[in-house]
Amino acid sequence: MSIIHSIAHQWDKAEFAHQLEQYLAPNRDAMRLFVGATRSQTVCHLIAAMGELPPKSEEGDFNITLPLLLDVLLQRFLLLYVKEVQHQSLTQGEQLIVSLTELIAQQAKQQDEQDAEVLSKSHIILSAMEKLEKHRTQLRRQRSNMGRS
């Protein structure tokens, strides 16, 4: 019986990734992130695989909305934030998730009609990105100074 549950869970992850890709497709700025070797489909599957999925609606869809997307991306972003700070490296797909999360947070912050929860999550993401950028800059300086001693 557990194999049936495992297969169903994997199916749900694939379905969520597909619906996420469809949700992001009209967003030109988001699609510009995927001009390199890693396609949007790969990144969407990575997002689905990294954590818990949101609940499905009664119709059996995930009904991806901006608040739901920000919630999902924030969870993945926090995992990747910790990974980068501790290990100083992310894969290309993981880096794209970080970039996508920052982009979606910036877009959400610019929209006038967002609720407090969306704005709060956007603020958390953008604040953490500032800290991550400072951390990256500090690491680059340390690495460049190593050869000068």
Describe the overall structure:
Helices cover 74% and strands 0% of the residues. With 149 residues, the protein is mainly alpha-helical. Helix 4 packs across helix 5. The protein is globular, with a radius of gyration of 17 Å. The model has no long low-confidence stretch (mean pLDDT 90).
How would you briefly describe this protein structure?
The protein has 149 residues and is mainly alpha-helical. The protein has helices spanning 2-24, 28-32, 40-49, 66-87, 92-110, 116-146.
Describe this protein with a few key phrases.
6 helices; mainly alpha; 149 residues; single chain
Cα shape: globular
Residues in helices, as a percent range: over 70%
| Individual helix count | 6
Termini distance? 62 Å
Q: What is the SS-derived class?
A: mainly alpha
Kindly report the average pLDDT value: 90
Low-confidence stretches: none
SSE blueprint:
Layout: H1 2-24, H2 28-32, H3 40-49, H4 66-87, H5 92-110, H6 116-146
